[in-house]
Design brief:
2 copies of one chain form a homodimer.
Chain A lengths: L65 H6 L1 E8 L2 H4 L5 E3 L1 H7 L13 E6 L5 E9 L4 E4 L3 H8 L6 E7 L6 E6 L16 E2 L8 H5 L2
Antiparallel strand pairs in A: 1-6, 2-5, 3-4, 4-5, 6-7, 7-8
Chain A binds a DNA duplex through helix 2 and strand 4.
DNA sequence: CTCGTGACCTGCGCG
DNA sequence: CCGCGCAGGTCACGA
């Protein structure tokens, strides 16, 4: 495998790219995250993470134009995909540090693998709902159900990177994006190098991405 | 690896004695068999489950001296290890006849792979907890979790034999032991031939075990 | 039946 | 150098 030098080339840009208007989902209580420990499924109700509290005043202004919308996005983390993440295991391991920081499981004790459903918006505004849980056996946090469909639709391969963001305010909407492995040496042909799925479907950002 | 002529007839029916105790997996909900709810991490330390039930009457008497202790042990069966049993599959297949006789899975229906945890004491008094379950796919009973650690610690190799015993009374304590393959032709040097791990560290009991 | 996927488990590599 | 994180597996079950 030749992955592994994902660089670290920081992409300092993807979240700041212009454009975009995602439909503000009408429903206010955007619950993606999860239901409190006991409600299984359909998180529909509250939850309590801490990202959504205060409704940011500054919000309603002209800042609501695309640009500012981007500005309001806050990158959480990204992960270069391992072969297992895109293989038949149908799961994405979320590095513990990030999982515990951004997607804390209910009640502060993670013993419960009841699972939550997290909904993310992709670059086209499409929603992706993933089951999120903690596996005590392997002591790791994973996205399971729904993940393989995402991998398939986006044609993700090992070495590609997935990006996780959240919106400041607005109930903490969550976003997911991806980009092709940065280095050359594409395993399957490489034609796609530089493609990203972030600010809009099919948008190429080669220059920005490979240079920078 | 050239073993494989395990005489399939080592056991000449050991005593029949019903009874047996295995601890049913602690929680039905079945996730995490280890770690009781709150303790996360390090499963190894946390048991305390089964042996604490009732402290059985017979216990405190003179019967507790080594000799009578041995007398009260009842051999269940033994199995010459196959290459798979000691390989990376991390499981020990328990011959169906013995499994069903001594470790019947709950409720009489074995469809349920919920699994049990069986705790065995070894020759040094150390406890080994193995997950025991039925694999429908291979139609066999197996010890999985924990098994590979046992193989490693005891340095077991194909052809070596594992022994299973239980104590009469006392809630049916379970014991596990082993001995090196009896025939010569040791694969790795043979210096250990004849060694057993059974009644005490380093004690040899070859005569008793192989005859009888 | 197969496929998807939830639930297990463990070796190994890295910090 | 050792413990944890996680990559890479297996198996079972429901659709």
């Amino acid at each position: 495998m030749s992955i592994n030098h994902f660089s670290s080339t920081p992409e300092s840009f993807w979240w700041t790219q212009p454009h975009l208007t995602m439909e503000p989902t009408p429903k206010p209580p955007q619950q993606h995250l999860l239901s409190p420990p006991n409600t299984h499924h359909h998180p529909a109700t509250s939850f309590s993470l801490n990202l959504n509290h205060h409704h940011d005043d500054v919000d309603g202004e002209e800042r609501e134009n695309p640009t500012s919308l981007e500005v309001n996005k806050e990158p959480m983390f990204e992960k270069p995909l391992t072969p297992s993440d895109v293989g038949k295991l149908n799961r994405l391991v979320i590095p513990k540090q990030h999982a515990e920081k951004y997607f804390p499981l209910g009640g502060g004790d993670r013993t419960d693998s009841a699972g939550l459903l997290l909904s993310f918006e992709d670059e086209s505004g499409k929603f992706w709902r993933f089951r999120y849980s903690y596996w005590t056996s392997s002591q790791s946090y994973v996205l399971t159900k729904g993940w393989s469909r995402y991998v398939k639709e986006k044609r993700l391969d090992a070495g590609d990177v997935v990006l996780f963001e959240r919106h400041r305010g607005e109930g903490g909407r969550l976003f997911i994006g991806w980009r092709r492995r940065s280095s050359a040496s594409a395993v399957d042909g490489g034609a796609m190098a530089g493609t990203v799925g972030w600010v809009g479907p099919g948008v190429l950002f080669c220059a920005c991405l490979s240079c920078a």
